[in-house]
Specification:
alpha/beta; TIM Barrel
Length: about 325
């Protein structure tokens, strides 16, 4: 088993020398690495056929966040289906409405993906992934480096309709982005397909769980995570402490017991018993205890904001609130 020092070196692999020369944004607080998943800014308007990397960088700079998990749609061209309000997983762009709850998102997404328009957009995205040269992803990495923002992980939510060729390309994309961690909301059955790709490319796949404990194929419990961990040394856990709490489990104990297999955390506040997302401090997620554990134990585990509750401001304003909440705990 790797020591904390050795595991920390693994997680920091791939940090380019050029980043050391940039005016890096440092969002650490008392040794705890704080950042966000750029999914938090999914309400940003999109123009069909373009990415929105520049807008995301501007938002991160405004928030003062220097380490991220990069949401794959940010580097992919938006389709007509996904470019505006009401796209799968999107928040309303009206102030104060915030993102819908996870159950609403899942139901709406599944219904939308069965339409002819969605199937056409899905195939167009597949072809884009297959055809796009890796220079595109290296150029994206350079933009973040130049802004002083460290790309720590890349979000790729694998579904059963991914072809092997498409999966292969996503691992190449991660290399182009200079990361050695792919974070994925997927299923155990899909994880089995990913073993050979992760081991071939020596890239960690960190599985993200939700609160659906009724489906044994979904990541939600310590047992489901363990099944994946037993498959490959390149499989890790991206622990969402909000979903883990909503599913009825103890995030603090899990981190203490499995910190060497956790790449990073997603931080949100949810109620227990599969309850809804809440503004931070109003749910049951032990955010304070988790952050203080990271501080005390000096675990090299980044804690990334995932904005999902219904806020009263824009996504940038709400991410700033979340960041201030974390800083206050760690001060």
């Amino acid at each position: 088993m790797k020591t904390r020092r050795e595991f920390g070196k693994v997680l920091l692999a791939g940090l380019p020398a050029s980043l050391a020369l940039a005016a890096r944004i440092d969002s650490r607080v008392n040794g705890v690495r704080i950042g966000t998943i750029t999914y938090s800014f999914r309400d940003f308007p999109r123009t069909p056929g373009t990415d929105n990397v520049d807008a995301v960088i501007q938002a991160l700079t405004e928030c003062g966040i220097g380490e991220i998990e990069l949401f794959s749609p940010n580097v992919e061209p938006a389709s007509a289906l996904s470019a505006g309000p009401g796209r799968p997983g999107a928040a309303s762009q009206n102030r104060g409405s915030g993102p819908p709850n996870p159950q609403e998102q899942t139901a709406a997404f599944r219904a939308r993906m069965r339409t002819p328009e969605a199937m056409k957009a899905r195939e167009e995205l597949r072809q884009w992934r297959l055809a796009t040269p890796m220079e595109h992803f290296r150029a994206v990495r350079k933009k973040f480096d130049d802004a002083g923002i460290h790309l720590y992980a890349y979000t790729m939510n694998y579904r059963q309709d991914f072809t092997d060729e498409e999966v292969e390309k996503t691992f190449e994309q991660a290399k182009g982005l200079g990361v050695n961690i792919i974070a994925s909301s997927t299923q155990l059955s899909m994880a089995r397909r990913l073993i050979s790709f992760a081991e071939k490319h020596k890239i960690f796949v960190a599985f993200h769980g939700h609160a659906n404990t009724a489906d044994p194929d979904e990541f939600s419990s310590p047992e489901t995570f363990q099944k994946a961990l037993d498959m490959s040394k390149y499989f890790k856990v991206n622990l969402d402490i909000g979903h883990f709490t909503a599913a009825g489990f103890d995030a603090v104990s899990y981190i203490q017991e499995h910190h060497d297999r956790i790449t990073h955390l997603h931080v949100k506040d949810r109620k227990r018993n599969n309850g809804p997302n809440q503004p931070w401090g109003e749910g049951d997620t032990p955010i304070r205890q988790v952050l203080l554990l990271l501080k005390e134990k000096k675990y090299p585990i980044p804690a990334f904001i995932e904005y999902e509750y219904r806020g009263t401001g824009t996504s940038v304003e709400e991410v700033k609130k979340c960041l201030a909440y974390m800083k206050n705990i760690l001060a």
